[in-house]
Amino acid sequence: MGEFGVNLPDAAATQRLGWRLGQLCSPGTVLLLAGDLGMGKTTLVQGIGLGLGIAEPISSPTFTLINEYLEGRLPLYHVDLYRLAPTQVDSLELEGYWDGSEAEPGILAIEWSERLVDYPASAIGLRLDTDPSGGRRATLTAGDAHISLLKKVVGDGLLADEV
Ligand SMILES: Nc1ncnc2c1ncn2[C@@H]1O[C@H](COP(=O)(O)OP(=O)(O)OP(=O)(O)O)[C@@H](O)[C@H]1O
Ligand SMILES: [Mg+2]
Fold first, then answer.
1. Domain residue limits at 114
2. Smallest Cα–Cα separation from 112: which of 21, 41, 15, 22?
3. Quick one: which ligand is closest to 33's CA?
């Protein structure tokens, strides 16, 4: 298990972090986004879309449940569980997005992933918290299989320290 912290002084930095994830993640990546209201989860997913080469604007999927973007390097599936009851979360059958049974493997980005009971052991965790300076602090966690990926993602130009 590896954990990395990254300072994100402004929204553009959040997008850049997403952009690197979009460029580097492989098919079947599950990204568990956590952090309070307005911490920048959707902003990060917009960056992922840019990194995947998706031109369509990415907006919050609160009402559509799952937004699918299929024009980039990999499919991007964007979910927001904020308003969903546990039974609604179950009915999304998200496992079909990571086991490849329902959808072509891509990147599955889940806002309010705290609501999720079942997720793959290989999932990458990304939590956003406030920073005293007014920006955000991202904490990324992953199992051994994805540590080298996270090092690449946080490595270039972004302040990173392994905790
Ligand atoms: N690193 C940052 N520093 C300062 N502001 C940021 C940063 N990242 C994003 N923001 C800003 O935070 C606000 C909320 O962003 P966003 O909608 O992406 O949050 P969210 O976590 O998806 O919210 P919700 O929980 O409602 O879905 C936006 O105005 C965005 O520009
Ligand atoms: Mg959001």
1. 2-157
2. 41
3. 1
- As for ligand 1, residues whose beta carbon falls within 6 Å of it are 8, 10-11, 13-14, 35, 37-43, 60, 111, 135-136
Q: 58 alpha carbon to ligand 2 midpoint, in Å?
A: 10
0.85 exceeded by pTM = yes
Q: What is the pairing mode between strands 124-130 and 29-34?
A: parallel
Assigned token pair, 53: 């080469």
Domain assignment present for 162: no
Q: Which helix (H) or strand (E) covers residue 18, if one does? A: helix 11-24
Phi, psi values for residue 25, rounded to 5°: -70, 150
pLDDT tens for 64-73 read 789 999 999 9
Count of domains observed in the chain? 1
